[in-house]
Amino acid sequence: MILVDPRVWIDYFNGKKSEESNALDAALADGIVAIGDIIYS
Q: In the chain, which end has fewer C-beta atoms inside a 10 angstrom radius, N or C?
């Protein structure tokens, strides 16, 4: 499991290309991403 920093989520959803957002995209495809309850709520 990977717990993703909120800044990476922001970049990802805003379409900003970075090493981190690309890694998040790959991790989502692999199904290994966790999200904290503070980020979710």
A: C
d(CA 20, CA 6) in angstroms, rounded, equals: 11
How far, in Å, are 2, 18, 24 from residue 11 at the CA level? 17, 8, 10
HSE value, Cβ hemisphere, 13 Å, CA-based, for 6: 6
DSSP string covering 24-39, please?
A: HHHHHHHT-EE--HHH
pLDDT in tens, 1-39: 888 888 999 999 999 999 999 999 999 999 999 877 775
